[in-house]
Design brief:
The structure is a single chain. The chain is of the alpha/beta class. The protein has a single domain, classed as 3-Layer(aba) Sandwich (Uracil-DNA Glycosylase, subunit E), CATH 3.40.470. Helices cover 33% and strands 10% of the residues. The protein contains 9 helices and 6 strands, in the order ααββααβαβααββαα. The chain has a 6-stranded mixed sheet, sandwiched between helices. A hairpin with a 2-residue loop joins strand 5 and strand 6. Helix 1 packs across helix 4. Bound molecules: uracil (URA).
Length: 267
């Protein structure tokens, strides 16, 4: 059964008061001046080789020879199929030892939106697709409230591709080991906006450890792409009142995306 937009907002715990009309200014958050954050300085890269796909997890990939840390050197030259193969067979950190499978991500390979979470949980590890558990249902409702959906102009990935045991927070070394994959995904996907879901994604992409509360409502940049920060859906499931703040963040992200698509001329 598909939910209407209003039903999705209700599902998110957001009353109709949050439904803004087109062109209506937001009440609380102001658009702060662009805050430049370290770009990777990656060279312009070849476009993704795959056509946009529906929200299907990648088919199983035959294991290849194990990769040691030295196997990461050429990551920034890989096309998408080779990147997917490398991730599927990665042994660059200990998370590979207990995973059922690595979870690269899912969605449109020419997305407007890139959502980045923390790492696969048990459901994602079993199914090979990000955000398929309860947090994923909420994320889908959040996307639906924006009239977008996974697989349609949206790509969903994670800071780490393998499940941390017991769903613990990924360690700094694990984030660092996986970061080249995420950086290559971003370079190939070329999203128009990146939405970071929670502190771990913020740490991985922006290298910033400030509180989420202090980072919300600001426009950051990664490699020239606007970046916006919001709460992780799993946090929102435990802190229902903050859903309204997440909705504000998504509306802010949509404005940033629209501004990026048609910049205001200075005269
Ligand atoms: N939480 C995440 O950060 N990512 C997932 O894929 C699932 C839950």
């Amino acid at each position: 059964m598909s939910l209407s937009r209003e039903q999705m907002l209700v599902e998110m715990g957001i009353s109709p008061i949050w439904v803004l009309r087109e062109n209506e200014q937001p009440a609380a958050e102001s658009v702060t001046a662009p805050l430049a954050v370290a770009a990777t300085g990656q060279p312009e890269l070849a476009p993704p080789l795959l056509q946009p796909t529906a929200a299907q997890p990648a088919p199983p990939i035959a294991p290849a020879a194990p990769l040691g840390a030295s196997g990461m050197a050429d990551i920034d030259t890989l096309d998408w199929p080779e990147l997917a193969r490398r991730v599927a067979t990665c042994q660059a950190c200990p998370l590979c030892q207990q995973r059922k499978q690595a979870v690269l991500g899912v969605g449109d390979l020419h997305p407007d939106w890139l959502f980045i979470g923390e790492g696969p949980g048990a459901d994602e590890d079993a199914q090979g697709e990000p955000f398929v558990g309860q947090a994923g249902k909420l994320l889908d409702n959040m996307l639906g409230a924006l009239d977008i959906a996974r697989g349609n102009k949206v790509y969903i990935g994670n800071a780490v591709k393998c499940r941390p045991p017991g769903n613990r927070t990924p360690e700094a070394a694990e984030l660092a080991a996986c970061r080249p994959y995420l950086e290559r995904q971003i370079a190939l996907l070329k999203p128009k906006i990146i939405v970071l879901l929670g502190k771990v994604a913020v740490h991985s992409v922006l290298h910033d450890d400030k509180s989420l509360a202090s980072l919300r409502g600001k426009r950051f940049e990664y490699a020239g792409i606007p970046v916006v920060v919001t709460y992780h859906p799993a946090y929102l499931l435990r802190n229902l009142p903050d859903k309204a703040k997440a909705w504000e963040d998504l509306l802010f992200a949509r404005r940033v995306l629209r501004e990026a698509a048609s910049p205001v001329l200075p005269f």
